[in-house]
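Newbie here. two chains, one complex. Structure please?
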Amino acid sequence: SVAKREVAEAAQHDKVPRPVGFVPPPPPCPGKIRYFKI
Amino acid sequence: VPAAPPAPLGCDDPESEAAAAVALSYINSHSHYGYKFALNRIENIRMLPQKLNDYILFLELDLLETTCHILSPTPLENCTVRSFTEHAVEGDCDVKLQKLDGKLSVLASKCHSHADSAEDVLQLCPDCPLLASLNNTEVETTVKAALDDYNSKTADAYLRLLEIGRAKIQYHPAHIVFVEFAVAATNCSAEAAKENVEACQLLPDDQSNFGFCTATKVISPSQDFQVNCQLYGHQVPTPDTSFPSQDTS
């Protein structure tokens, strides 16, 4: 019989283990704001 | 095996900033009206390899207007970006560049500018003056009065109006008109102009002398009128050394 796993449980299993303190790199664009955004 | 495509550029990568600097210099040197613009943000960059050491770059730039008129000889790095409460103006530019053997050049550019919304400014500063239309009657009247006032008092050349750069009007707590306009010296002295102003023509390019004026006219509750003009002196026009391009305005 096929039992549907809870999403949270599935996500838990599928999540790739990341090293402690892993900080995802900032998105390449858009870049930094030098003055202010209007 | 074909060379691997270059890694996608980040918008804050040194190579992207170098391309943005070339694009900005091109935009400011090919603009004939208004003010110089400074780089606020690189929105996006795409790189298309053509052949070895030959790339096409597409840049999307977010610029902000500075207080330097486009004819001012002030270097861009010394130009102040207009603050939010001065009713900032933003420029959005799409620029196509070529990077050939490491040398960047602009192939085409297209920009449009727009002022910040009045709501944004008033939310932060309820009494701040807002940008007015350049053909607003009060604006045109104030510019004409300011130029007449300056020409009536100067011992130098008679100045003619080149363009109204910006205008703001405040209504509370006082009614005040603020104008900024570009001027050019003519071949007449202000004294001679009183006799025959029609004879006063702008100086030829090799002798041109441009300037910039600001004026503030308090209409109520009191009356006051301040005019300040500064001539740049003759500037030797810099030959445009950038790559001949089909720039689109």
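Moderator note: The first helix of chain B runs from residue 14 to 29. Chain B touches chain A through 23 residues (CB under 8 Å). Thread marked as resolved.
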